[in-house]
Amino acid sequence: MSPAPDVLVVGSVALDSVRTPFGAAEEALGGSASYFALSASHFAPVKILAVVGDDFPAEHRRLFEGRGVDLSGLETAPGRTFRWRGEYTVELGHAHTLETQLNVFSTFHPRLDERHRSSPFVFLANIDPDLQLEVRRQIRSPQLTLSDTMNYWIARKPDRVLEVLREVDVALLNEEEARALAGETQVVRAGERLIEQGAQSVIIKQGEHGALYQSREDRFVTPAFPVEALRDPTGAGDSFAGGFLGWLARSGRRDGQALRQALGVGAVMASLAIEDFSPRRLVEASHEDISSRLKVLHRMVNYELEAAFPPDPS
Amino acid sequence: MSPAPDVLVVGSVALDSVRTPFGAAEEALGGSASYFALSASHFAPVKILAVVGDDFPAEHRRLFEGRGVDLSGLETAPGRTFRWRGEYTVELGHAHTLETQLNVFSTFHPRLDERHRSSPFVFLANIDPDLQLEVRRQIRSPQLTLSDTMNYWIARKPDRVLEVLREVDVALLNEEEARALAGETQVVRAGERLIEQGAQSVIIKQGEHGALYQSREDRFVTPAFPVEALRDPTGAGDSFAGGFLGWLARSGRRDGQALRQALGVGAVMASLAIEDFSPRRLVEASHEDISSRLKVLHRMVNYELEAAFPPDPS
Known about the structure:
Oligomer: homodimer
CATH architecture of chain A: 3-Layer(aba) Sandwich
Low-confidence stretches of chain A: none
GO cellular component, one term (chains A, B): cytosol
Protein name (chains A, B): Sugar kinase
Keywords (chains A, B): Kinase, Transferase
Mean pLDDT of chain A: 93
CATH class of chain A: Alpha Beta
Structural class of chain A: alpha/beta
Number of domains of chain A: 1
InterPro entries (chains A, B): Carboh/pur_kinase_PfkB_CS, PfkB_dom, Ribokinase-like
Organism (chains A, B): Eiseniibacteriota bacterium
Strand order of the largest sheet of chain A: 5-4-1-8-9-10-11-12-13
């Protein structure tokens, strides 16, 4: 089998300080591109487009390299790396940001080389939609593009966020973001509304309730993988994206069956990410860990429907 | 094929006045036993154990009889029928009770005759857990018993609610109730905790997010059926219960496949209930309506998982 095609991610590489009811991490590896890359690296070769400061620890570089992640697009700028400090309360799922230092990220401007421009699979992680569009338009003929966003951009640049949605194959949003952008309370209706507004397809992430995929032709869901010990929800969405896009790159398919499998793989990778602080579990997980979780998830939803309605006994 | 075995429900038959953003109903047929019975009646013969006042409209009786529901256990007491008045705000799903008049229901004491005591399938709808236990203990050798409850009883009689959970085969709760009773925030953990506390199996209803089934041996989920027009969420849970238990009665099976199908049927019946005020859609729905929704729901979750993990391309 030939190697899976490359996956490119543009996003943040950061140092996160996180506190949850189950522990804390100080200046741990974080950022959307980091979680995505380490997740997708289980399935396909990954290239990162991002920027760090000259204080970025060498051990984090080695962590990426140990997973085969291509860092030639990881620019080192004079100054400090992007830092985020946050905490989660008992109702895990909602982060309270205590401090954001954009540092070198504030002037980040992705520079794509020839190999980046020919990437077949692309993830536009949560950055300014203007940058997402700029990168998207430089990619020559991608097979599949995936985007993410956040409430911050939906509140400030809703039109640009919608423009991104129209220019990618699959747009990832969480429940709250989908409701805000679509102006619809029910998640299913919000998904339909985004399609009407020009999105090709959307995945609405619903935390412990799983995720919904919606396109013009198809609609399906995956439950979340039931984790025994949720320790830190940071990076769940980007790890989901890494599993989803990485799996599609590796499988070489894009039919309904492959999309359903990819959604399940996304849920599995998200479950690994949240079981420990920083992307530690994503790095340590074996193919066997991933396979066995995918089988469990499959059993949670799959069944035979012999007769849609048994014969009327009366 | 012989007729499906009887299903007995003990609960309320009420007159509901409901207002939602999409309309209003005045003194419409309501109550847990009503929704359950009309839902389950599509699959099996149903008997109601309940009480109404002497003001209960004859047209509602005819509605039940038109669906073959046995009303010999529907007592008529001197006085007024149980009335509930509520409204739902934009965030449908949470009802605000404006007025509850228990009326004849306040002294309701179920009287079971010989045929009731030999019912193979029993639903203990949301009533005082002491009454649920009293009824449960009079049923001789049921094949399957299902219970429901509400926050009101969990707050006042948690031990009795847990006693009911231990004495039935399947306990239905919504998300909020499961969290409150189990003392766990995450729904999956709440389900596990209730099993540890002695429940045989639980179904946790999650509104637009579907439902989770959890037993000692198995765990699976169904999404909600995506309705185009949610008009009135009243009765969703009882309609779900009617589809679930009615389907199991009709199928004569209780294996994992049948339970998964029954969960899907429950979701379909709930979706019909909430598309209009009062149980109108439950009455009007044809077998074809139910079948086609079940197929849609099945397509939303089902897929082939040929290889849990494709060969490593590296």
